[in-house]
# Entry
Amino acid sequence: MNTFEFIIVEPAYQQHIALVRLNRPDALNALNLQLMGELRDALKELDDMDEVRVIVLTGNEKAFAAGADIKQMADKSAIDMLKIDQFSTWDGIKRTKKPIIAAVSGFALGGGCELAMTCDMIVASETAKFGQPEIKIGVMPGAGGTQRLSRAVGKALAMEMILTGNFINAEKAMAAGLINRIAPVELYLDEAMKLATEIAVQSPLATQMAKEAVLKSYELGLQEGLYFERKNYYLLFAGQDQKEGMSAFIEKRKPDFKGN
# Structure
């Protein structure tokens, strides 16, 4: 893999599981342009590795990511921001086909909260805090916060969080449907790995197509979504994993999926 300055990538952290760590600890993993570019490139590389089936994205115990790097934006004009086009990098991250689990401890604020929501699942430590505090510096979420947060927790809570800038803790995030699991701070990464392992033993083709179909449910009407789901379901019958999975079920053994 490429070498990076602001992220650490372990493609073989566990069997079929890659670990990506945001690594700007002195800045609470603030998401500057270089870090986001490195993350996009790393996820693209991992997406192309057959041995990787699930990706876990994390920061450190203090912060998943405390937001965007405000110093890079403070003096920019609207034209500058259009030319920089920072959100095209986010579009590249969103195109990752393999499931991504965010392992969040400490702050996941602003862009950090948006990055966690761009992932497919979130495992949080008991110290995790989620928020979109952009309103407090005179702007608003721009990397999907108004859209993904509203879909995850509903209009009322999303509106309150975005218009006040207030944070919610892991317990409230769990109750609202934003996250999947909560674990003690010393175990949150292990808990994320347990979830990743449950997914990594499944058919890689099936998990990728199922992920794609679930995400489409947020973009399409019901009938269009059902058609998309059906298409992906039928396509899986062209692969060997479907034959292996159904044969293993009939023979009462564990399947050995190869990803083909």
Summary: The first strand starts at residue 7 and ends at 14. Strands lie at 7-14, 17-22, 54-58, 63-65, 100-104, 107-109, 121-125, 129-131, 168-169, 181-183. The mean pLDDT is 95. The chain has two domains: 7-200, 204-251.
